[in-house]
Design goal:
The protein is α+β, with helices and mostly antiparallel strands and 583 residues long. Helix content is 18%, strand content 29%. The mean pLDDT is 95. The protein is built from 13 helices and 25 strands. It has a ten-stranded mixed beta sheet with strand order 1-2-4-3-5-6-9-10-11-12, sandwiched between helices. The chain folds into two domains: 325 residues, Rossmann fold; 215 residues, Jelly Rolls, CATH 2.60.120.
Length: 583
């Protein structure tokens, strides 16, 4: 037996390191997986920042094992040797008459060049890769793009380029705005990009040669045969965390790093999960709401752990039905798939039904104001007549939590929420961390499996008070939209009106349970046993892998302040809850 065994389970042809010429003379490199018979095939294509030649099971063994435990079917009918992280498994697609192309983005894996994720250059490269694939003799000229997270976000960006042969896209877990979606939550800087770049991108940068990974099945050097010095590697990458931290406002840096909804016309399937609060879910919902595409569908699932959902039989069947329609012309998907499909989530973190809907948010939503009774720490149907106030310390993780009475009947919350707060700070700013919580009749908090963190609350929202200015043209009653174009410091102890977006969610609250709204000055912490996140080393405490803990950008002399909340009288702080009645 050879030292390396790359034998697939499925009979397929593999073209390694196919060159894709770019307009500046650089060749990106792609692996092409084809059915054994010569012919022309529709193409499922992905551009990856995680290296096409690094197998999922090798590069992310913990996540791979977790996915297999969640859904053992993932390993059926495949060797698993050709699954690049967050890309489709070619062995699940080749038998159904598709070609699969996975391209190393510029500066990653075996593609040379300057690495700048989500940049205008990268989306142009993606556009050119689509057009290259369309012109190949094994291609029908119909190109669908597919991938998860990083490989999905880049699809929003390339869709705005309107490549002529881009025939359909599946954005599976995809934030859509680098500023609002992940790097700054409500203006509060997240440290996610630092851990992401260090652990997942720099580890596969082109030029590592033998110092990088070697594919355990093929023996191929994942990051190219050339070895660059560390100085050369550093000069070949835009380090995302410092770059983003130097740009806290909506500057030109973000222009092509967010989806251009008016230019996205390609048929699209947007797939998110309720547990992707803080990273993807907002982008998936915005994509369905705002993209100019005439044909678009939204599916929001229960979280199947971090990655399993994309590779389950159910997930692959959904993907294949969509591509059978947009790439092959089979109209079964368009005849049977509702515009919106929601996995309705129970308090036991199970799915009670896969419910078809026609729009998002749901037209029958009863937008209900639950007023903050700050004297009694309660959420009430009517505003208190007299004004009262309550104060908490910024870095005190307890904050304050307002509770509804026990629910008299089963109540479904489904959609985005919004909070209006009247608040003051003892300093020139305040970071507000809002958490939508659920408590059982014994007062024990109910937590849910998130995209990464297995113990998360119902939903979250954030606001840095100095960035409270709204973009009135884009704001909706249930989704305040921050302009992020100016900093407006607070006058200490002056009361301000603040609007906070709470990310979309779904939960059917049983009778006797209570809904809670927590306001604090730090990330939510459930106080239970923590879980470590893979190679990044992040300790998850209920706020997943996108914490807000950079002391340079949250100095204690400003943010470990005294924040006072007001309610009643003329200052009616409230939660706008998306209560959905049964049909």
């Amino acid at each position: 037996m050879d030292e390396y065994d790359a034998t697939p389970v499925v009979d397929m042809r593999i073209l390694y390191d196919e060159p894709i010429p770019m307009d500046d003379g650089i060749d990106l490199r792609a692996n092409v997986y084809l059915p054994p018979e010569e012919g022309e095939y529709p193409v499922v294509l992905a551009l990856t920042s995680y290296a096409k030649d690094l197998p999922f099971c090798q590069g992310y063994p913990g996540a791979w094992e977790n996915a297999l435990q969640t859904a053992p079917e993932i390993a059926e009918g495949t060797s698993g040797k050709y699954i690049s992280f967050e890309a489709v498994d070619p062995e699940k697609w080749i038998p159904h008459g598709y070609a699969v192309v996975v391209v190393d983005c510029r500066g990653v894996g075996r593609s040379p060049g300057y690495l700048d994720n989500y940049s205008p250059r990268e989306s142009q490269d993606y556009h050119d890769a689509i057009e290259w694939a369309a012109a190949q003799p094994w291609s029908t000229g119909k190109i669908g793009t597919m991938g998860m997270s990083n490989l999905a976000v880049s699809q929003w960006l390339v869709a705005g380029r309107q490549a002529p042969h881009h025939a359909g896209m599946i954005a599976w877990e995809a934030w859509s705005d680098m500023l609002r979606g992940l790097s700054y939550h409500g203006g509060i800087p997240s440290t996610f990009y630092k851990s992401w770049a260090d652990s997942q991108v720099k580890s596969v940068q082109h030029g590592l040669g033998a110092r990088g990974f070697r594919n355990q099945f093929t023996g191929k050097l994942v990051s190219g045969d050339e070895e660059l010095t560390q100085e050369q590697l550093d000069a070949n990458i835009a380090d995302p965390y410092p770059m983003l931290m130097e740009n806290p406002l909506d500057s030109g840096l973000y222009d092509w790093r967010r989806a251009k909804w008016d230019k996205i016309e390609v048929p699209l399937l947007s797939v998110g999960s309720w547990g992707a609060v803080g990273v993807h879910l907002r982008g998936n919902c915005e994509g369905f709401m705002l993209a100019a595409s005439e044909e678009k569908w939204l599916v929001i699932r229960q979280s199947h752990g971090t990655f399993a959902g994309m590779y389950t039989d159910e997930g692959v069947a959904l993907q294949r039905r969509f591509f059978d329609y947009v790439l092959k012309g089979d109209d079964e998907f368009v005849r049977t798939q509702p515009p919106v499909q929601l996995h309705v989530r129970t308090a036991a973190d199970t799915v009670s039904e896969r419910r078809p809907e026609t729009e998002w948010p749901l037209a029958r939503t009863r937008w209900t104001k639950l007023y903050l009774d700050v004297e009694n720490l309660a959420l009430t149907d009517t505003p208190p007549a007299e004004q009262a106030q309550v104060t908490y310390r910024g870095f005190d993780k307890q904050g304050v939590t307002f509770l509804t009475p026990p629910m008299a009947e089963e109540t479904e919350i489904c959609g985005p929420q919004a909070v209006k707060l009247w608040a003051s700070s003892s300093t020139v700013d305040a970071d507000l961390f809002l958490t939508l919580r659920l408590f059982d009749p014994e007062g024990i908090e109910v937590l849910f499996h998130g995209m990464a963190d297995p113990q998360m609350p119902v939903s979250n929202g954030w606001l840095r008070a100095s960035q409270r200015k709204l973009d009135e043209a884009q704001s909706l009653p249930f989704r305040p939209y921050l302009s992020h174009d100016t900093v407006q410091p607070l006058f200490p102890d002056k009361v301000y009106e603040l609007d906070v977006e709470i990310w979309p969610t779904n939960i059917v609250v049983p009778p006797g349970y209570r809904l809670g709204l927590m306001v604090a000055g730090v990330d939510f912490d459930h106080g239970r046993e923590t879980v470590m996140w893979g190679k990044s080393g992040i300790e998850m405490r209920g706020s997943s892998i996108w914490p807000h803990v950079d002391p340079l950008r949250r100095p204690a002399d400003v943010y470990d302040n005294e924040v006072t909340l007001y309610g009643g009288g003329e200052r009616t702080s409230h939660l706008l809850a998306a209560i959905v009645p049964p049909r």
